Automatic annotation (TrEMBL):
Origin: domain of life: Bacteria
Protein name: Diguanylate cyclase/phosphodiesterase with PAS/PAC and GAF sensor(S)
EAL domain location: 1-255
Organism expressing this protein natively: Alkalilimnicola ehrlichii (strain ATCC BAA-1101 / DSM 17681 / MLHE-1)
Residues of the whole record sequence present: 791 to 1045 of 1051
Length: 255
């Protein structure tokens, strides 16, 4: 069976799960949110990484129903955490460029919020810079504005890896930049990468955006990012992505 037909079958069979990775404030160490990360447990074969199946899902258009499921499940879970009395944090969902171009993401988001009862500010969305490689797509611009009006906050994922024309940061209602983990990895052993982190933090500052570094694995990386004035971190240093139950436990009793 091709990966495509297995993906299709996996959706029908409900083989997907979301894990959640905490995002943490560098100012006071409090939790600021949870990123939902898709996991596929493919029977005997075990777990298949999203790095492998997301590109196939994008090529085949399966990312549309799969992304719809992710939105619904992340909103449902976040609402359940809130109803269980856990602190009200936003959940961040990754959106694929293909979803934004080929489907009505606004309608899917609206439905996920309505079905779950989660308010719009309980959902953040992450999109990668590659979305902005071509001219502004008017449908994407209008979509972002509508999402913003619904209270949803937008972040640029993998910032610094995609595109150098930063005009879109001013034209679109973007709230946050996520520094790509490849830049974080070089902190400490390369003055160059420290300079890149510094530059991204400075862009965020001057545009009034928040900034989060992803893939933080060591205390040394954390200290440099703190000194550079980064707002938040996410990474193995604080926590790996956790299943929903363990994520809820961490929200209830953060370290
Ligand atoms: O969690 P992990 O490091 O294995 O994720 C690998 C890649 O898959 C990352 O680029 C991540 O953004 C992407 N990814 C994880 N979950 C989702 C999802 O729900 N939707 C989309 N579009 N991408 C995801
Ligand atoms: O592209 P995106 O940022 O959405 O992908 C996040 C991916 O990075 C996930 O697959 C997640 O599992 C992975 N990840 C999260 N924290 C760390 C980390 O500290 N180190 C490494 N190597 N990967 C991480
Ligand atoms: Mn992401
Ligand atoms: Na990223």
């Amino acid at each position: 069976l091709s990966l495509e037909s297995r993906l299709r079958r996996a959706l029908d069979r409900g083989e997907f799960r979301l894990h959640y990775q905490p995002q943490v404030s560098l100012a006071d160490g409090t939790l600021t949110g949870m990123e939902a990360l898709l996991r596929w447990h493919a029977g005997d074969e075990g777990d298949i990484s999203p790095a492998r199946f997301i590109p196939i899902a994008e090529e085949t258009g399966l990312i549309v129903p799969l992304g719809r499921w992710v939105l619904g499940e992340a909103c449902r879970q976040n609402r359940a955490w809130r109803q269980a009395g856990l602190p009200a944090l936003p959940v961040s969902v990754n959106l694929s460029v293909v979803q934004l171009r080929r489907s009505d993401v606004v309608a899917d988001v609206r439905r996920a919020l309505e079905t779950s009862g989660l308010p719009g500010d309980g959902l953040h969305l992450e999109v990668t810079e590659s979305l902005f490689l071509s001219e502004d797509d008017p449908a994407v611009v209008t979509g972002f504005q509508t999402l913003r009006e619904m209270g949803i906050s937008l972040a640029i994922d993998d910032f610094g890896t995609g595109y150098s024309n930063l005009g879109y940061l001013k034209r679109l209602p973007i709230a946050k930049l996520k520094i790509d983990q490849s830049f974080v990895r070089g902190i400490g052993d390369s003055g160059h990468d420290t300079a890149i982190n510094q530059a991204i933090i400075s862009i965020a500052r001057s545009l009034g955006l928040g900034v989060i570094a992803e893939g933080v694995e060591t205390a040394a990386e954390l200290r440099v990012l703190q000194a550079l004035g980064c707002d938040e971190i996410q990474g193995f240093y604080y926590s790996r992505p956790l299943d929903a139950e363990r994520a809820g436990q961490l929200m209830a009793a953060p370290p």
